[in-house]
């Protein structure tokens, strides 16, 4: 899993959080999980009941859903990405804390919290646990997490320490490097970064002075840093979208710059799907690699009255209708 996440804010204040999912095969599909859904963690079998309804991408497991990216009814959106061998999982759960498998964190956050601020306030009580001694053993994936909401704040959670490290990301893009600060510092070769960027409460529409004179142009590399630099650069040069509709279209085109083509001779992973979440209207777009046309599902008030979970079938074939 490589992956790139992008947050854009339109002139009318609407937010679109988009991403590519780079993996060796398509293993997920759109899913809906209703309010008050009960599930069990693979770590210790502890039972939880979600508060909020969720729409996103993932797969059904025996006692829960494994969600890669999603939005809940409050407009909170969470995405998981590979963390380049940076995760340090816990062997022992501290008294009073919640223990989760790394892949379970997006599902837990979307089901319980309504905002980035709530997560920041509670993160010290959540530990990601090694699967070695779990009641249902699992591999120990190296993951980190990109989280945003209608406030426009973009939070990265990195499980390289306990409690998890929290990084407020005002650049609007997340990839997979294990040292975000070092990665972000390389932007100076490509952009004149605003001196007040760190002081911004939310991701601004422009992070630079918009002067590109004497600066480099990003390469076509698919490394985590290569995709980060390219996505930030094109996000910066793209016209600021007027509204949510333009924001989705703009975000989809920015993702074009980091989509990884299938090239099995040289690398196992490619962009198996991409998604975009419109935080204000709870519109969700999903496009698999071969389909070349996104489908749209809305987490509507009517859907939120539904009591049954749903897994949507993906027809990963060319559709130009």
Give a brief outline of the structure.
With 321 residues, the chain is α+β, with helices and mostly antiparallel strands. The protein contains five helices and 18 strands.
Features:
globular, alpha+beta, 321 residues, 8-stranded antiparallel beta sheet
Would you give an account of this structure?
The chain has 321 residues and is an alpha+beta fold. It is 15% helix and 28% strand. The chain contains five helices and 18 strands. Strands 13-12-11-8-7-6-3-18 form an eight-stranded antiparallel sheet, with helices on one face. A six-stranded antiparallel sheet has the order 14-1-2-15-16-17, with helices on one face. A hairpin with a 6-residue loop joins strand 12 and strand 13. The mean pLDDT is 96.
Helix content: 10-25%
Strand content bin: 25-35%
Enumerate how many helices there are, as a single number. Answer: 5
Q: Order of strands across the widest beta sheet? A: 13-12-11-8-7-6-3-18
Structural class based on helices, strands and sheet pairing:
alpha+beta
List segments where confidence is low: pLDDT < 50 over at least 5 consecutive residues. Answer: none
**Strand segment count:** 18
The run of helices and strands is EEEEEEEEEHHEEEEEHHHEEEE
Radius of gyration: 19 Å
Globally, the shape reads globular
Which helices and strands, and how do they pair?
Layout: E1 4-9, E2 15-23, E3 29-33, E4 38-40, E5 47-49, E6 54-60, E7 65-72, E8 77-82, E9 98-100, H1 105-112, H2 116-122, E10 126-128, E11 143-148, E12 154-158, E13 165-168, E14 173-174, H3 180-185, H4 224-237, H5 244-256, E15 270-278, E16 283-288, E17 295-298, E18 310-311
Parallel strand pairs: 9-10
Antiparallel strand pairs: 1-2, 1-14, 2-15, 3-6, 3-18, 4-5, 6-7, 7-8, 8-11, 11-12, 12-13, 15-16, 16-17
């Amino acid at each position: 899993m490589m992956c790139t996440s992008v947050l854009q804010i339109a002139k009318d204040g609407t937010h679109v959080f988009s991403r590519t999912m780079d993996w060796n095969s398509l293993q997920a599909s759109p899913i809906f999980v209703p309010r008050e859904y009960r599930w069990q963690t693979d770590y210790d079998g502890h039972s939880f009941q979600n508060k909020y309804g969720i729409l996103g991408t993932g797969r059904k497991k025996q006692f829960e859903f494994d969600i890669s990216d999603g939005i809940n009814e409050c407009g909170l959106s969470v995405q998981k990405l590979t963390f380049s061998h940076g995760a340090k999982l816990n062997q022992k759960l501290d008294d009073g804390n919640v223990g989760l498998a790394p892949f379970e964190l997006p599902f837990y956050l979307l089901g319980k919290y309504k905002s980035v601020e709530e997560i920041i306030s509670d993160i010290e009580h959540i530990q990601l646990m090694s699967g070695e001694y779990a009641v249902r053993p699992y591999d120990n994936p190296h993951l980190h997490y990109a989280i945003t909401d209608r406030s426009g704040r973009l939070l990265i959670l990195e499980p390289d320490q306990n409690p998890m490290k929290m990084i407020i990301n005002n650049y609007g893009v997340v990839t997979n490097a294990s040292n975000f600060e070092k990665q972000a510092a390389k932007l100076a070769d490509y952009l004149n970064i605003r001196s007040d960027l760190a002081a911004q409460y939310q991701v601004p529409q422009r992070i630079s002075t918009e002067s590109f004179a004497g600066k480099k142009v990003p390469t076509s590399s698919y490394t985590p840093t290569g995709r980060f630099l390219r996505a930030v650069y094109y996000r910066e040069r793209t016209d600021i979208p007027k509204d949510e509709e333009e924001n989705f279209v703009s975000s989809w085109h920015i993702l074009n710059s980091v989509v990884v083509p299938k090239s099995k001779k040289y690398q196992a992973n490619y962009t198996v799907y991409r998604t975009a979440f419109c935080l204000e209207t709870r519109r969700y777009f999903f496009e698999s690699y071969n389909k070349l046309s996104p489908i749209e599902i809305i987490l509507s008030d009517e859907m939120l009255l539904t009591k049954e979970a749903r897994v949507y079938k993906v027809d990963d074939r060319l559709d130009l209708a």
